[in-house]
Design goal:
alpha/beta, Alkaline Phosphatase, subunit A, 9-stranded mixed beta sheet, 14 helices, 30% helix
Length: 454
C-alpha cells in the first residue's frame, strides 16, 4: 500500500543489451513498458563499460570525470562524495548495489574484488554485493565464486571456459546457479527481506548479455527467426550467435519478472520507481563488428524504460507510452535525485536533465542535442542528425540523417550539398566543449561580455 514517503528506486542495469532486444523474448520488460514510459532515443555517455557506468553515477561525461576507458584509475575522492547514491544516502535512503559495478576496474589482478567493498561504499552505498563478468571470474574472486566454492563447483565452472565449437554456448549449470541467476536471486532476496523504515535505492546490475554468449539449458530461439545484420553478410553464424544472445536476454527478463513479483507480494510495487537500461548496446555483427566501442545506434543507443510511482503510463488506446525525446544516461543523476526529493547540486557543470519534467503534464523542455564520448571521438546527436568527430582521425568521421536513414547506411560526411549541416553541427559541438571547459569568476563578470561565471 502507498505510504506517502519518497518512493523506493530500483535501477536495473544490464551490459551489452540492445534496444531491439526488448520484444517477445522479454515479456516482463514489455509489461514494465506497458506500466510506464519507454524512451526510444536514449543514449549512453560512452559506449564502453567503465566510462559509461561512472558517467551514470556521477552525471558527468568521461572527459569530466576522467575515466575514459576500462582499466583506468578510479574517480577522485571528491567525486565519490558527489555521486547521486551518496546524496540519496545523505537524504535518508538505504542504498544497495547487487551485481556488477565497474566503477573500479580490477580485471586481471587475480584477487578477491571484495577487498574494495569499503572503498565502493564511499560511492554512497550501505550494502555492496559484487559480481564480476564471466571471464573475469576465471582469475578474480567475488560473491559468485565464493558461492560456487561453497557448493563445490568452482573448479568445474572455471574449466568450462576452455570449451570449443558449439559447446562454448553451454553454461555448465542450471539457470539459478548462473551468474545472472545468482544476481537475480539475491536482488529478490533483498526485496523480500528488506524491513527498514527508510525508502531504499537498489542498483541491480546483471552481467549479461555481455559475452561469452553461453547460457543454461538448450537453445530455444530459432536462429532462422533472428533479425539479419545491418551492413554485413547475413551468414548463419551471425544468426546463431544472436539466438544465443537472446537466450541471455530472456534469462535476465525472467529475473526482472521475479523481482517485480517480489515487490508486489510485499506491497511495495506502488511505492517503487523502476528504471531499466544498459550501460551500452552491442553491434552484434552489424557492419561486421562484434563489439561495442562505436557510435552506431545499436552500440551507443540503449534501452530505457521507466515505470512506477508517479511515472505516466498504463494502458493506452494506441499502445504503450513512448517518448522520442533525446535522453542521456547523464539524466539519471538529476532524475533519480528528483524522484527522491533531493536537490541536485549546482556545481560540476552537469549536462543532465530531470526526465520527470519531460513526462509531466505540461511537458518540460526537452534537450535539443546530446553528446557521447569515447577516447578522442565524440558524437553529437540532434533531432534528425548524428555527427561523429575525431581529431585523431581527421575530423568528421560520420554524418547520418537518422530521419531518412535510421540504419546508418549512408554516411554523408564530405558529401557535396551537406557542408552547411556539417558546419552547423561542428559549431554546436565546439560550443558544447567550450561551455564545459571554459568559464570565469565573478570578479571578471563586468569586464568580459556575456561570459559564464563559475
Amino acid at each position: 500500500m502507498p505510504t506517502g514517503r519518497n518512493p523506493n528506486i530500483i535501477l536495473i542495469l544490464t551490459d551489452h543489451f540492445r534496444r531491439d532486444a526488448i520484444g517477445r523474448s522479454t515479456p516482463n520488460l514489455l509489461g514494465l513498458a506497458e506500466r510506464g514510459t519507454t524512451f526510444a532515443n536514449a543514449y549512453c555517455a560512452s559506449p564502453l563499460c567503465g566510462p559509461s557506468r561512472v558517467s551514470m553515477i556521477t552525471g558527468l561525461l568521461p572527459s569530466q570525470h576522467g575515466v575514459c576507458g576500462n582499466q583506468a584509475r578510479p574517480i577522485s575522492p571528491a567525486l565519490r562524495d558527489d555521486t547521486y547514491a551518496r546524496h540519496l544516502q545523505q537524504a535518508g535512503y538505504y542504498t544497495a548495489m547487487i551485481g556488477k559495478h565497474h566503477w573500479i576496474d580490477m580485471y586481471g589482478l587475480q584477487t578477491d574484488v571484495r577487498v574494495n567493498d569499503d572503498e565502493l561504499k564511499r560511492y554512497g552505498f550501505d550494502h555492496i554485493f559484487q559480481v564480476v563478468d564471466d571471464g573475469e571470474n576465471r582469475h578474480n574472486d567475488d560473491e559468485y565464486t565464493a558461492y560456487l566454492r561453497s557448493i563445490g563447483r568452482l573448479g568445474e565452472f572455471r574449466e568450462s571456459f576452455s570449451r570449443k565449437g558449439a559447446r562454448r554456448f553451454q553454461h555448465p549449470f542450471a539457470e539459478h546457479d548462473s551468474a545472472d541467476g545468482f544476481i537475480g536471486r539475491n536482488a529478490v532476496q533483498f526485496v523480500e527481506a528488506y524491513d527498514g523504515e527508510r525508502p531504499f535505492y537498489l542498483n541491480v546490475s546483471f552481467i549479461g548479455p555481455h559475452p561469452p554468449l553461453w547460457h543454461p539449458g538448450e537453445l530455444t530461439h530459432d536462429p532462422e527467426e533472428m533479425w539479419p545484420p545491418l551492413g554485413a553478410p547475413d551468414d548463419p553464424q551471425t544468426r546463431i550467435k544472436r539466438a544465443h544472445y537472446m537466450e541471455k536476454c530472456a534469462l535476465i527478463d525472467r529475473y526482472i519478472g521475479r523481482l517485480i513479483a517480489a515487490l508486489e507480494a510485499r506491497g511495495m510495487l506502488e511505492d517503487t520507481v523502476i528504471i531499466f537500461t544498459s550501460d551500452h548496446g552491442d553491434n552484434l555483427g552489424d557492419y561486421g563488428i562484434w563489439d561495442k566501442r562505436y557510435f552506431y545506434e545499436n552500440s551507443v543507443g540503449v534501452p530505457f524504460v521507466m515505470a512506477g510511482a508517479g511515472v505516466p503510463g498504463g494502458e493506452r488506446m494506441n499502445g504503450a507510452r513512448v517518448s522520442r525525446s533525446l535522453i542521456s544516461h547523464l539524466d539519471l543523476y538529476p532524475t533519480i535525485l528528483g524522484l527522491a526529493g533531493v536537490d541536485v547540486p549546482t556545481h560540476g557543470r552537469r549536462l543532465g536533465i530531470d526526465i520527470s519534467r519531460i513526462l509531466s503534464e505540461n511537458g518540460g523542455p526537452a534537450r535539443a542535442e546530446l553528446v557521447a564520448e569515447l577516447g578522442t571521438c565524440v558524437m553529437l546527436r540532434t533531432g534528425n542528425w548524428k555527427l561523429v568527430f575525431d581529431p585523431e582521425q581527421g575530423g568528421v568521421q560520420y554524418l547520418f540523417n537518422l530521419a531518412v536513414d535510421p540504419t546508418e547506411h549512408q554516411n554523408l560526411a564530405g558529401v557535396a550539398g551537406y557542408e552547411h549541416v556539417t558546419l552547423d553541427l561542428v559549431q554546436r559541438l565546439l560550443s558544447n566543449r567550450i561551455r564545459l571547459t571554459q568559464y570565469t569568476h565573478v570578479k571578471e563578470e563586468q569586464r568580459l561580455q556575456r561570459v559564464r561565471v563559475c
